[in-house]
Design a protein that fits this description.
The complex is a heterodimer of chains A (227) and B (231). Helix content of chain A is 78%, strand content 0%. Chain A is mostly helical and 227 residues long. Classes of the chains: A mainly alpha (227), B mainly alpha (231).
Chain lengths: 227, 231
């Protein structure tokens, strides 16, 4: 059996496991966690929204790491991984914005408001999109890898500002309730389910990242073969 | 070190001479700023006095940001025309000297756009509200400019080899500068509405501007050398 077929099989198996874990997390969130005292059943979207947001922010960290590796290690493969991280980051940022909007309608009465956290998350989506457009607009080569890496580092710098925006600016968005001084304000059974959803979301993102980076490497090899 | 300083001096002198020989390069963003302010004045019409500080600061900083984007995006045009990037292969320049010369140039250009814009905004948009022309507002605007200029030079360098720089420059410039824009508007408004002093602002909005300025400047200085390396 060739290496490629073996790799594909391993990858498919990993993907199935990730989505199974995600399904278990969502099923647990819908069936076995209690309702929220104030928000009732609506709050359950938290099990998609918060893990997506965390994964979107983590993707920026991955983008930063691979960008640094590109610049310091002069590694063209790291540039492909950085691009894959930006693509995964964009998908999860869009999921975060969509689920946040759906959650905002019944709780705040509006689909969208120019709140600090919402605006900065939207800014992150624009930056991921800008990075990907920028990457596509340049001719392949070490110059593109270096410039895209520099941009990736700057985008990653934006993420702490987004995270801290809720405490710095006046905002409708609730303050951090999981990672905060004095411990989490969530009920332990809710927190456990949320952590399960978070882990499954990160696993799905890792699966997507590896799959996309592998595809990009294949694409690069093909481009090198065809003059 | 001495060599870097000499290179910085001559690069800055050369850049200033180019700007002096082509006044339309820095006059057009200024004229653009005045036009945008006039459009804002027409669009706002008669404004209730309590909304003036919010609208005034937001419109002024937006105008400055738009104009600076035009000025920044052209900053490396003379170097491209003079084929400086090709010449670097035979005569390597210090990236620090080059970055600092461009940075000082855009800071001077930015100031020449910022100051008249503040004056005109106060003239066109401020009807009886607290004045925009005060030392704390100038300090906030300059600190915002400190970070913006670094980002402007860096993005301009990044876009040199991009095939879609006209679209990409604003697409990246505006999202990246959004925290600076928000902090500058909120800081100025806090001073105008509640008379917050610079010491008070230093613990929130002005502090955020200083931190982002330092981050953008350091990153730009570190990354500039990587961006100008020949293929």
């Amino acid at each position: 059996m060739s290496d490629t077929v073996q790799h594909d099989r391993r990858h498919t198996l990993f993907g199935i496991l990730c989505f199974l874990l995600l399904a278990v997390g969502w099923l647990w969130a819908l069936r076995f966690t209690p309702s929220d005292e104030h928000q009732g059943e609506v709050y359950r979207i938290i099990y998609v929204h918060v893990p997506s947001a965390f994964t979107a922010f983590s993707s920026a960290g991955i983008l930063c790491l691979f960008s640094l590796w590109t610049l310091l290690g002069r590694n063209s493969t790291a540039g492909l991984w950085a691009k894959a991280a930006a693509e995964v980051g964009l998908i999860f940022t869009l999921i975060t914005l969509a689920t946040g909007s759906i959650w905002g309608r019944p709780t705040w009465g509006v689909w969208w408001t120019w709140d600090a956290r919402l605006t900065t998350t939207f800014v992150l989506a624009l930056l991921y999109a800008g990075y990907l457009i920028f990457y596509s607009s340049m001719a392949p080569g070490s110059q593109r890898d270096r410039v895209a890496a520099a941009l990736g580092i700057i985008i990653a710098i934006n993420v702490p500002i987004i995270y801290k925006s809720v405490t710095w600016w006046r905002t409708l968005h609730q303050p951090p309730s999981i990672v905060r001084e004095g411990g989490s304000t969530m009920a332990p059974e809710m927190l456990a389910t949320l952590l399960l959803c978070l882990v499954s979301s990160l696993c799905v993102a890792a699966w997507m990242l590896v799959l996309r980076a592998y595809n990009l490497k294949l694409q690069q090899k093909l481009e090198q073969l065809v003059p | 070190m001495k060599r870097t300083f000499i290179q910085f001096q001559s690069l800055l002198q050369h850049s200033l001479m180019v700007e002096k020989a082509n006044p339309e390069r820095w006059l057009s963003p200024l004229l653009f700023a005045i036009t945008v302010l006039l459009l804002f004045a027409f669009a706002f019409g008669q404004v209730e006095p309590q909304f003036i500080p919010q609208l005034l600061t937001a419109a002024t900083y937006l105008t400055v940001f738009f104009s600076l984007q035009i000025a920044f995006s052209r900053i490396l045009e003379p170097d491209t025309q003079d084929r400086v990037f090709e010449q670097l292969r035979s005569y390597p320049l210090s990236p620090i000297a080059w970055f600092l010369s461009k940075y000082v140039l855009v800071f001077l250009l930015g100031t020449s756009i910022l100051l008249p814009t503040l004056i005109f905004a106060n003239l066109f948009l401020n009807e009886g509200g607290p004045s925009l022309l005060s030392v704390p507002i100038f300090v906030i605007a300059w600190v915002a400019l400190f970070g913006l200029c670094a980002l402007g030079v860096l993005l301009s360098t990044m876009m040199l080899r991009s095939q879609a720089k006209q679209i990409l420059y604003p697409l990246l410039y505006f999202p990246l500068t959004a925290p600076v824009l928000i902090a500058a508007v909120e800081g100025s408004r806090a001073h105008m509405v509640s008379g917050a002093s610079l010491q008070n602002l230093m613990s929130n909005w002005l502090g955020l501007l200083v931190i982002s300025g330092i981050i953008y400047f350091t990153l730009s200085l570190l990354l500039f050398g990587e961006l100008i390396k020949p293929e």
